[in-house]
Amino acid sequence: MTDLRISHAQEWTVRRLNDGGLALPLQISRGDRLLGMAELRLTPAAAEHLHAALCYALDGQLPPTTAPDCRKEIRYPGRRSG
Its domain of life (predicted)? Predict the structure, then answer.
């Protein structure tokens, strides 16, 4: 087993690729030592699947106070919530 760790980069800056996909910067580290950077590249469809999977995994958990607005409850006019 290795002690490599892959996590999101310091800033959560997702960028659009020329082909319409999305790139999420990642950092690779061992212990406290940063070894390098990489990108998780996703097609729009793969990004939607990841988004849905994360929403499903987070369902029922209250968002932390530091969560971005998209994690807070949204009410749309004319639609039922929940």
Answer: Bacteria
No. of helices (H) and no. of strands (E), the chain: 1, 4
Q: Is 59 exposed, middle or buried (0-12, 13-18, 19+ CB in 10 A)?
A: exposed
Of 64, 54, 1, the residue nearest 24 (C-alpha): 54
With respect to residue 9, please indicate whether it lies within any of the assigned structural domains.
yes
Cα 53 to its chain centre, rounded Å, is 11
Domain count, the chain: 1
Residues 56-77: what's their mean pLDDT?
A: 72
Cα–Cα distance measured from residue 80 to residue 75, given in angstroms and rounded to the nearest whole number: 8
Find the distance separating the first CA and the last CA of the chain, reported in whole Å: 42
pTM above 0.85, yes or no: no
Domain span at residue 40 reads 4-60
